[in-house]
Amino acid sequence: MLETLKSWDEELFLFLNAQHVDWLDPIMYTLTGKYIWIPLYAFLVFLTIKTFKKNSIWVLLGIGLTILISDQTTSGIMKPFFERLRPCHDPRWEGIVYNYQKCGGRYGFASSHASNSFAVAGYFVLFLINKCKSITWLFFWAAIVSYTRIYLGVHYPLDVLVGAFIGLLAAIIVWWIIIKLKPELHLKHLFPPIQ
User: Fold this and answer.
1) What is the pTM of this model?
2) Where is each Phosphatidic acid phosphatase type 2/haloperoxidase domain found (predicted)?
3) FRET label pair with 12: which of 34, 48, 56, 183, CA 20 to 30 Å apart?
4) Which of 158, 143, 148 is nearest to 110 (CA)?
């Protein structure tokens, strides 16, 4: 079963990675970077401060903890444990995988980019959904960042999906801890009762 899943994952990767066009390469490489998203992060900090005023420090400390858990789970625990080569490091795909610019570390399961971007998206959606319904677009942003990793040849789709799951799980856990510590931060009717 695991071998079948791995085979499907590799086939999907090879198909998706082959769908590249030269003019899109530098755009995808830029979108996968850290610094281009600083305005987005600044906007989220602004929205948090505007929404939670003096209690915003709790929300901001929580996002730091969320990213720490998300990143360390994927980079510090999973990658060294599973030792799954990134596609661009796997000799089986030499001359087949399209890798733009650089490959990154040796191992790729699970994707830290996917984990961290979905952690940020999930966490801020949980805290801000009642104040800004359109905040769910953060999931679209996280999906684009995650997809760039397949496009650039540095992650398999399963690396990205598992990374996204880890990020969302970290967001939910930290959100739950923060609202237990500071119940006044819990926005009423976030999850309306089922009737």
Assistant:
1) 0.91
2) 60-175
3) 34
4) 158
